[in-house]
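call fold(seq) -> tokens
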Amino acid sequence: MSDETNSQPYYLLPDVHDSILYALHTSEGLIRFI
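ret:
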């Protein structure tokens, strides 16, 4: 059971990291577009 609780934060971190990367990529694209 402790394995499952340990998995939760690890599962959330990549999602946050991906959204940050995605936001950075969109900002770069917008700046280039302008």
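Helices lie at 2-33.
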